[in-house]
Amino acid sequence: MTHSPAPTVAPIVYLRLRSRVRMIQGQDLHLGDVAQLLTNPEWEKDLLELVLKRPQHQDGNLILIDMLQIIAKIRDHIPGVVVESLGKPHVLVELVEKPRKPSKILFVLVWVLLFFGSALTIMNFHADVSMMEVQVRIVEMITGRKDEHPYLFQIAYSIGIGFGMIVFFNHLFKKNWNEEPTPLEVEMYLYQENVDQYVVAEEYEKMARLQTKDKKP
């Protein structure tokens, strides 16, 4: 009695795309750059080095890589493979130039602009709410005498503003007091999410227009 050979089991690749990645212009885009994967050890290294795209100048600085494109590349590379997708169905790739050494002159210029801009903003706010009169009145209520120039109170108040900003933004130079994100980081994250959603929608529309154009006789 002859035994039929056991059917070969198709390899399974579990794939999860990153939401957004950066890469240097002029480099090939590999699967390992945009995704995390789990598969048989003999396939893993080969798949991580699989070239998905060679960015061209006309592609711009943002490229949308769709899960369907990745699955097609993987199936061309490994016929019969089963791809299990986890997470988002696309990834945005931002092409950036090679990092340059930061300019000290530009740093000083930006620092001076931010310093004086913040100082003017605080002074204009205090002028609008008549902070000077309020401070004079507070000192008079505490000490019992009127002082037109309560410097000691104003110095303490100024130090309190600086300390309050450090506590509020949870950041002093490169040091964070805890792992909680600062309000500025949260706003930047929300802004980046909205920008990414807009770019993704625009890229999908471009892809749909190209497919429609190609189908026309």
Automatic annotation (TrEMBL):
UniProt cross-references to InterPro entries, sorted A to Z: SporV_AA, SporV_AA_N_sf
Record domain Stage V sporulation protein AA: where: 12-98
Entry keywords, A to Z: Membrane, Transmembrane, Transmembrane helix
Domain of life (superkingdom): Bacteria
Membrane-spanning intervals of the chain: 105-127, 151-173
Range of residues in the leader sequence: none
Gene3D superfamilies tied to this protein: eubacterium ventriosum atcc domain
Database matches in Pfam families: SporV_AA (PF12164)
Name recorded for this polypeptide: Stage V sporulation protein AA
Organism: Paenibacillus peoriae
